[in-house]
């Protein structure tokens, strides 16, 4: 403690405060964006219908449930389809056996014909039987594939991962071909639909670049997959733009509103570091250090954020003016400056 006291006493009472670190306000070329409200939509929304007949015996998912891709959503009674599949399997096996028999008979008669023990007519009959056996096998294979497909249709699976919006049947109901079963939408593939004023349509079409704000967050998603309709709405005189989001879950759901910023050109903007800006009640400003080293508080009109933790200045500052990088230290120095001036 005595050493600390001696150190404090040894410091000159009139020592100047350390110089403040400053930076200069400079103009930079920034993207010129226009922001509009957009509606989140699902790219994939489908109504699933029955492709075979049968009684509904299982419904694993309810409305608003998340359904993985390929998951079973409806199962129909498959007794009839399974019986037809078993019959098709038996017919295909029988046809295959007949073909093996016909091939063996044809080879045997071909050898006899070469030895001139068998007439040509008998060989031709064996060849005709072989061709018929091959055609019968092909027909039975096609019938087997059809029967297997009909049996597969009794198990309706989700074509994509998403949410079940509607369930249109209940257990015990009989579904026929074409009966609507369920409606679902994908949460992995989303887009934003935006009404764009006609003035900006050509600029958006020229740049085809946009950012979408995640609702409830300061994060933005980049997108270059933009479709601008080639015609305007005759009532609102606006063009419809669709902005496709990157695949995946981003905390957005169909029906939500969000902000979409379209690139419409480039503009010069006066930038300062975001950390130099301070807020005093309803006043926003920075500390300016002039050429003589004196500190002043300057009220500013601040715009939107810019890349690199920068902030756009709309009014109140000129290019080249020096700004204190540490507003806390600058505030303390300003108080000392005012106190010194009052004593003088």
TrEMBL record:
The keyword Coiled coil is annotated on this UniProt entry: yes
Domain CusB-like beta-barrel: 192-262
Any single Gene Ontology cellular-component annotation: efflux pump complex
Domain Multidrug resistance protein MdtA-like alpha-helical hairpin: 85-154
Alphabetized UniProt keyword annotations: Coiled coil
Coiled-coil boundaries: 85-150
Single GO term (MF): efflux transmembrane transporter activity
Pfam family of the protein (one): HH_MFP_RND
PANTHER family with a match to the protein in the record: MULTIDRUG RESISTANCE PROTEIN MDTA, RESISTANCE-NODULATION-CELL DIVISION (RND) EFFLUX MEMBRANE FUSION PROTEIN-RELATED
NCBIfam families: RND_mfp
Protein name: Uncharacterized protein
């Amino acid at each position: 403690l005595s050493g600390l006291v001696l150190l404090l006493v040894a410091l000159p009472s009139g020592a100047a405060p350390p110089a403040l670190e400053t930076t200069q306000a400079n103009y930079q070329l920034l993207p010129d964006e226009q922001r509009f409200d957009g509606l989140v939509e699902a790219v994939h929304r489908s109504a699933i219908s029955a492709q075979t007949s049968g009684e509904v015996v299982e419904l694993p998912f309810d409305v608003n449930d998340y359904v993985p891709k390929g998951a079973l959503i409806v199962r129909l009674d498959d007794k009839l389809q399974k019986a037809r599949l078993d019959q098709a399997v038996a017919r295909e096996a029988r046809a295959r056996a007949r073909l093996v028999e016909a091939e063996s008979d044809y080879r045997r008669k071909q050898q006899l014909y070469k030895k001139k023990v068998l007439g040509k007519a008998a060989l031709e009959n064996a060849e005709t039987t072989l061709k018929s056996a091959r055609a019968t096998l092909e027909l039975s294979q096609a019938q087997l594939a059809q029967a297997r497909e009909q049996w597969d249709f009794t198990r309706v699976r989700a074509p994509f991962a998403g949410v079940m919006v509607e369930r249109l049947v209940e257990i015990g109901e009989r579904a026929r071909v074409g009966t609507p079963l369920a409606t679902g939408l994908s949460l992995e593939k989303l887009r934003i639909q935006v009404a764009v004023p006609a003035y900006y349509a050509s600029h958006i079409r020229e740049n085809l670049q946009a950012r979408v704000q995640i609702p409830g967050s300061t994060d933005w998603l980049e997108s270059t997959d933009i479709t601008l309709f080639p015609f305007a709405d005759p009532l609102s005189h606006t063009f419809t733009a669709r902005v496709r989001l990157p695949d995946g879950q981003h905390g957005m759901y169909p029906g939500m509103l969000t902000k979409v910023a379209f690139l419409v050109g480039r503009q010069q903007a006066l930038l300062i570091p975001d950390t130099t800006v301070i807020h005093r009640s309803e006043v926003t400003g920075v500390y300016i250090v002039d050429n003589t080293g004196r500190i002043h508080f300057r009220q500013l009109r601040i715009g939107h954020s810019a890349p690199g933790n920068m902030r756009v200045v709309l009014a109140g500052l000129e290019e080249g003016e020096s700004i204190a990088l540490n507003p806390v230290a600058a505030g303390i120095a300003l108080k000392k400056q005012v106190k010194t001036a009052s004593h003088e």
